[in-house]
Specification:
GO terms for molecular function: lytic endotransglycosylase activity. It catalyses: a peptidoglycan chain = a peptidoglycan chain with N-acetyl-1,6-anhydromuramyl-[peptide] at the reducing end + a peptidoglycan chain with N-acetylglucosamine at the non-reducing end. One of its GO terms (biological process) is cell wall organization. This protein has about 350 residues and is mainly α. The chain has a two-stranded antiparallel sheet with strand order 1-2. About 5% of the residues have low confidence. It is about 45% helix and about 10% strand. It contains 15 helices and six strands.
């Protein structure tokens, strides 16, 4: 027997089937995929505030369902709200499965990952690569002092407070950077919540600055507290920190890969810790948890200097003469080096 109802307009067909009690026909629409053998998936986006009629129309236009009016009627009978976001759908799925995915399924997530030691601009490029927002929008949000203050960040920008981790985000309406920034700041706050500096904004900011120096100076876990201790000791004694990475940060795009004597003597660089005493004006990168822990509790020792060995580890020294000898041994190939540059030469 020919199924005459299949040839009626979608909305009228479903209405007649429902009113007439033809449960089998209604089941056919709800449970039968448009193309059962098509295993391909497409990314379907439901915009924030988009109407059911619009969604149903686009589902039919994209070849995912048979009748948009029938889908619209079915969705209204189910009384389920649709989520905004991106969803993977297939024409091999039934209208019931498609509706339930749009109503209850997990929207597609975009992965954001960045390692320890990146600057705010480098993090912005990582965010840009996700397609969720642009680097320019993210940087503008990072410089939004009102937003930072509302989120408990005691700084003029988010440098140092963008916690390095792997994150997953759904598509954000209007490409707003703020949900991404808030997630990074929340992860930072959760990491430092129990540290002694967390309750004092000035102490917290100083700790983050110190952690950023530690992060840039060594990647060896066992050395982080020692490096933090060297800088803490120098601060206590009123010595210059003489940290190369701070100069590099201050140079920005002008840094070509080699530090010159003129860079070490440049008082115009506020991040030049060979000239300016104390901590630099702000963090120089995003420190990870280990560097933050080290800066919160630096090792207590008598070391004032350190120099890199060929294997990437460091030799720590108590005196300038000992340090100069280590520099000659590890970096000068035995050639005399009459004047040390700083804690790491």
């Amino acid at each position: 027997m020919r199924q005459w109802w299949k040839w009626l307009p979608g909305g009228l067909a479903l209405m007649l089937l429902t009113i007439g009690g033809l449960a089998g026909g209604a089941w056919y629409f709800v449970e039968t995929p448009l193309r059962p053998a098509d295993n391909a998936t497409v990314v379907f986006t439901v915009e924030s505030g988009e109407s059911l009629a619009s969604v149903a129309g686009r589902l039919e236009k994209n070849g995912l369902i048979r009748w948009s009016e029938s889908f619209r009627t079915y969705a209204r009978l189910r009384k389920v709200p649709l989520q905004a976001g991106e969803f993977e759908l297939s024409a091999a799925w039934s209208p019931r499965r498609i509706l339930e995915t749009l109503a209850f399924g997990q929207p597609m997530l975009h992965r954001l990952h960045f390692a320890e030691g990146l600057t705010m601009r480098e993090v912005a490029l990582a965010v840009n690569a996700t397609g969720l927002t642009t680097a320019e929008r993210f940087l503008a949000a990072c410089n939004d002092r009102d937003f930072l203050r509302k989120n408990g960040i005691p700084a003029e920008n988010a440098e140092g407070y963008l916690f390095p981790e792997t994150y997953f985000f759904p598509r954000i309406p209007g490409q707003s950077p703020y949900p991404i920034l808030k997630a990074l700041l929340d992860r930072f706050k959760g990491t430092v919540r129990d540290l002694p500096q967390a309750g004092n904004p000035e102490e917290l900011h100083a700790m983050v600055i110190l952690a950023s120096l530690v992060e840039k100076e060594t990647a060896i876990p066992a050395e982080r507290e020692l490096v933090a201790g060297v800088y803490a000791k120098r601060l206590q004694l009123g010595m210059l920190l003489q940290c190369d990475p701070t100069i590099i940060y201050g140079l920005g795009e002008m840094f070509t890969g080699n530090l010159r004597r003129s860079h070490l003597q440049d008082a115009g660089n506020p991040y030049n810790t060979y000239v300016h005493p104390g901590l630099p004006p702000g963090p120089i990168c995003s420190p990870g948890k280990a560097a933050l822990m080290a800066a919160a509790g630096p090792a207590e020792h008598e070391f004032l200097y350190f120099v890199a060995r060929p294997d990437g580890s460091h030799h720590f020294s108590r005196s300038l003469s000992e340090h100069n000898n280590a520099v000659i041994k590890y970096q000068r190939g035995g050639r005399p080096f009459p004047k040390s540059r700083g804690p790491e030469s």
